[in-house]
Write a structure and sequence with these properties.
Blueprint (H helix, E strand, L loop, with lengths): L17 E3 L10 H15 L5 E3 L9 H7 L3 E8 L5 E9 L2 E5 H5 L17 H12 L4 E5 L10 H6 L3 E3 L18 E3 L10 E5 L12 H5 L7 H22 L11 H12 L3 E3 L1 H8 L2 H5 L4 E9 L8 H11 L4 E8 L3 H6 L4 E4 L7 H6 L1 H16 L22
Parallel strand pairs: 1-2, 1-11, 5-6, 6-9, 9-10, 11-12, 12-13
Antiparallel strand pairs: 3-4, 4-5, 7-8
Helix pairs in contact: 1-14, 7-8, 9-11
EC number: 2.7.1.-
Enzyme class: transferase
GO molecular function, one term: glycerate kinase activity
Length: 406
């Protein structure tokens, strides 16, 4: 069951509006910047069409920004980055609900110089962010897992909340997944009481914590780990799982999602009592998408690369499904696309407009992505919006298609 946005008042939209609900273009533009460029272009070519901007996310990098753009309060706090250096990270707050994002404190983009540190990168800062949210009165926390730099099984998250990981001499372990091989005992007396706090992980149910389909084997190479380092990290995660499950009395290592984001999903399941929900639909509920899509003439979504990976729960797919329930047609913008024909129809996206179609050079495309998006709006307006001065006649929406193929 998705988290209801009880603290979020409804945001009625003007009827006949265009709802701009894109995700981010990785390495180029945030979701809010994509929405702003789409709005700027459409205002030039169809100044009489009302626009509503709703940047979206799926639990990964940009999740807090999406909540802030939807009216949540931004809170900044200094925490440990993935390598221990202090960083200023953000969370979003509304009433007794908070949105916390792994990438804000422990993300790849927080690595000094962008240099991977697979053995020592830690989720300590994410635990500190969670603790700060609880101290601010949050009783419902959405934890976005995605874009993380660490493969520590969430051990750092527990440390950031006040727990201690000790070696055989009773000394605190250094951060990172490699050190977990020397874990001898846990001291959890410093953890806050989270019994009255509901934690929901926004993300797709990934694999288990350990083994060939586990956190180290699947995510370690993406975070810079060699084959030998993957084996070392998996051994550390196994030791961590043995002691963590005994301490939490929750058998979590084999649950779907335990391997998410370097195993941070495991710690959320074992120590926070979290449940995992599809990130895109969870965030759309949280952002009030259904209310803002009501009466929409057209919905525009998108992301940097629209391909087969997008079908596995990315934000545009969630937008397309939700817009179909509202009876609104959906078009997408993308840096590049690999989905066409039947795959798009199954995803309930009527058309895709790609920057690569007007700028084939990738470097120039990234550098000029904002201007190119505004250029694309001319085609979107010509093909989907009535000329200025004419009454809107809503485009027909194809009948619902079967769910997207995996």
């Amino acid at each position: 069951m998705a988290v209801a946005s009880a603290d979020s008042p409804p945001h009625p939209s003007p009827r006949g509006h265009v709802l701009l609900a894109p995700g981010r273009f990785r390495g180029a533009l945030s979701a809010a910047e994509v929405a702003a460029h789409l709005a700027a272009g459409l205002r030039r070519v169809r100044p009489d069409v009302p626009l509503v901007e709703l940047p979206v996310a799926d639990g990964g990098d940009g999740t807090v920004d999406a909540a802030v753009a939807a009216g949540w309060r931004r809170v900044e706090v200094e925490v440990c980055g993935p390598t221990g250096r202090p960083v200023t990270a953000r969370l979003a707050l509304r009433g007794q609900s908070a949105v916390v994002e792994l990438a804000e404190a422990s993300g790849l983009r927080r690595l000094p110089g962008g240099r991977p540190r697979p053995l020592v990168a830690s989720s300590v800062g994410t635990g500190q962010l969670l603790g700060h949210a609880v101290r601010l009165g949050a009783r419902r926390i959405v934890l976005g897992l995605g874009g993380g730099a660490c493969t520590d099984g969430g051990a750092g998250l527990v440390q950031g909340l006040g727990g201690r990981l000790l070696d055989a001499l009773g000394k605190d372990l250094p951060p990172g997944g490699a050190a977990l091989r020397s874990l001898h005992a846990l001291d959890l007396r410093g953890l806050p009481d989270l019994s009255s706090v509901e934690v929901v992980v926004a993300g797709e149910a990934a694999g288990p914590l350990l083994g060939r389909g586990g956190a180290a084997a699947v995510g370690g190479p993406r975070r810079g780990a060699s084959r030998d380092e993957v084996a070392l990290l998996d051994a550390g995660l196994r030791r961590w799982a043995d002691l963590a499950e005994a301490a939490s009395r929750r058998a979590s290592r084999d649950l779907p999602g335990a391997g998410a984001s370097g195993g941070v999903g495991f710690a959320a399941l074992a120590f926070l009592g979290a449940r995992i929900e599809p990130g895109a639909s969870l965030m759309l509920d949280l952002l009030g998408f259904a209310e803002k899509a009501r009466g929409a003439y057209l919905v525009v979504t998108g992301e940097g690369s629209l391909d087969s990976r997008s079908l596995r729960g990315a934000a545009p797919m969630g937008v397309a499904r939700a817009a179909a329930r509202a009876g609104a047609p959906v078009v997408a913008v993308a840096g590049q696309r690999a989905l066409t024909g039947e795959r798009l129809r199954r995803a309930r996206i009527q058309a895709v407009y790609a920057l690569a179609d007007i700028e084939p050079d990738e470097e120039r495309r990234v550098r000029r992505s904002g201007a190119l998006l505004e250029q694309l709006t001319v085609a979107i307006a010509d093909e989907w919006l009535p000329p200025s001065g004419l009454p809107p006649v809503r485009p027909s929406v194809p009948p619902p298609a079967p769910p997207s193929e995996p």
